[in-house]
Design goal:
The protein is an alpha/beta fold. It has three domains: 15-110 and 298-322, 3-Layer(aba) Sandwich (Rossmann fold); 113-197 and 324-338, 3-Layer(aba) Sandwich (Rossmann fold), CATH 3.40.50; 199-289, NadA-like (Rossmann fold). 41% of the residues lie in helices and 16% in strands. The protein has 15 helices and 14 strands. The protein has a four-stranded parallel sheet with strand order 4-3-5-6, with helices on both faces. Helix 6 links the parallel strand 7 (132-136) and strand 8 (149-151). Bound molecules: iron/sulfur cluster. Residues 85, 110-112, 138, 197, 199-200, 271, 296, 298-299, 345 line the site of iron/sulfur cluster.
C-alpha cells in the first residue's frame, strides 16, 4: 500500500526481478520519501559497510553486523530496518526479540552462512561429543542455536583462547578465518569446517602480491575471510611483503586503522562496498581495492527500490522461533562476556 503524501507516487513502482527490486532512482525525492516513511514507522535504518553507497548514506547508522545489532537493541525505535543480508537481520531479531525487524529483500542470503546447516553441525558435533563449538557470526540463527560461543573476526582468537587447552574445538564455517585462528593460537585440537565466502575467497594471494609490488608504500588492509589472508601472512613472514604494512582487520578495525595510519595509500582486500566508508573516514588517503570485482551480489540486492518497498509495505519481516532465538542469544552473549565483541564482517 502506498502511504499518503508519497512524493514518488505515480512515478513507477519497485519491480521485483531475480536480482532484486528495481525501477526507483536514488534521487533527492527518494531520499526524502525514505526518511519520511522511516519516521512514520518509527523505524531506525541500519546499513552494513558492504551496502550500496546511497543506502549507506541514507541510513541512521552504518557499521559491521554485530555493532549494528547492538545499536538496534539499544535504540528506542520499535522497528529495525536492516539493510544487509538475512543472517544479519536475524541477529538483530535475536538481540531484540520484541522489536519488528524488516529486511528490504529477504532473498539477500550469504554463501558463507549457507556453507553449514544446523543438521550438518549436529552431525559434526556427534563425531566430537566433547568439543566446544565456535561459530563465526556469519551463520544462520539455527546454527547459532547449536553453537557454544559465537565469534567475530576481531575476537575469534580471544574466544578460542578462552577455551581450556585440552578441549577439542569445532570452528565453523569459514576456513580462512579458522586457519588464521589456528595459526595465532597454535592449537592442534582445532577442527575447521571447509566453508567459504565466494566473494572473499576470490581475493587471492597472487593478485595481492602483484598489487603490493606495484604499490610498495601502500598499507594492506586484509579481512581474515579473504583467500589472500593466509598468503599475505606467509608473504610477510618470508619478507615478500613488508610485515609492518600487512594488517589483518575486521571491517570495523579497518575504519579505526584508516584514521590512525600514516600511509598515503592503502590496498583493501574485502568486499568493495567498504571503500565508501573508508574514503569518508580518511578522505586524504588513496584507498584501492585489491580486487575491484569483489562485490557481493546478495548485499547489492538491497536496492533503493527494495528499501522504498520495505518502508511502504512493512516487508519483508524477519521471524526467528522463540526457542531458537533464546539458544542463539546464549551463544552471542557468551561471546560478549569474553570481551572485544566488535567487528563482525
Ligand atoms: S560478502 Fe560473502 S560473507 Fe559477506 S554477505 Fe556476501 S557472501 Fe556472505
Amino acid at each position: 500500500m502506498v502511504a499518503t503524501g508519497d512524493v514518488l507516487a505515480g512515478r513507477g513502482s519497485p519491480r521485483r526481478t531475480d536480482d532484486g527490486y528495481v525501477g526507483v532512482a536514488a534521487d533527492a525525492d527518494w531520499a526524502r520519501e525514505v526518511r519520511r516513511l522511516a519516521d512514520e514507522r518509527g523505524a531506525v535504518l541500519l546499513a552494513h559497510n558492504y551496502q550500496l553507497p546511497e543506502i549507506q548514506d541514507i541510513a541512521d547508522h552504518t557499521g559491521d553486523s554485530l555493532a549494528l545489532s547492538r545499536i538496534a537493541a539499544e535504540s528506542d525505535a520499535g522497528t529495525i530496518v536492516f539493510c544487509g543480508v538475512h543472517f544479519m537481520a536475524e541477529s538483530a531479531k535475536i538481540l531484540s526479540p520484541d522489536k519488528t525487524v524488516l529486511i528490504p529483500d529477504e532473498r539477500a542470503g550469504c554463501s558463507l552462512a549457507d556453507s553449514i546447516t544446523a543438521a550438518q553441525l549436529r552431525e559434526w558435533k556427534a563425531q566430537h561429543p566433547d568439543a566446544v563449538v565456535v561459530s563465526y557470526v556469519n551463520t544462520t540463527a539455527e546454527v547459532k542455536a547449536e553453537t557454544d560461543i559465537c565469534c567475530t573476526s576481531s575476537n575469534a582468537v580471544d574466544v578460542v583462547d578462552s577455551i581450556p587447552a585440552d578441549r577439542e574445538v569445532l570452528f565453523c564455517p569459514d576456513q580462512f578465518l579458522g586457519a588464521h585462528v589456528k595459526r595465532e593460537t597454535g592449537r592442534e585440537n582445532l577442527h575447521i569446517w571447509a566453508g567459504e565466502c565466494h566473494v572473499h575467497a576470490g581475493i587471492n594471494g597472487p593478485e595481492l602480491a602483484e598489487r603490493a609490488a606495484a604499490s610498495p608504500d601502500a598499507d594492506l588492509f586484509i579481512h581474515p575471510e579473504c583467500g589472500c589472508a593466509t598468503s599475505a601472512l606467509y608473504l610477510a613472514g618470508e619478507g615478500t611483503l613488508p610485515k609492518d604494512k600487512v594488517k589483518i582487520l575486521s571491517t570495523g578495525g579497518m575504519l579505526d586503522a584508516a584514521r590512525e595510519t600514516g600511509a598515503t595509500s592503502v590496498l583493501v582486500a574485502t568486499e568493495v562496498g567498504m571503500l565508501h566508508q573508508l574514503r569518508r573516514a580518511a578522505p586524504e588517503i588513496d584507498f584501492r581495492a585489491v580486487n575491484d570485482r569483489a562485490s557481493c551480489r546478495y548485499m547489492k540486492m538491497i536496492t533503493p527500490a527494495a528499501l522504498l518497498r520495505c518502508l511502504r509495505e512493512g516487508a519483508d519481516e524477519v521471524h526467528v522461533p522463540a526457542d531458537i532465538a533464546e539458544r542463539a542469544r546464549g551463544s552471542v552473549e557468551r561471546m560478549i562476556a569474553i570481551g572485544k565483541p566488535g567487528g563482525g564482517e
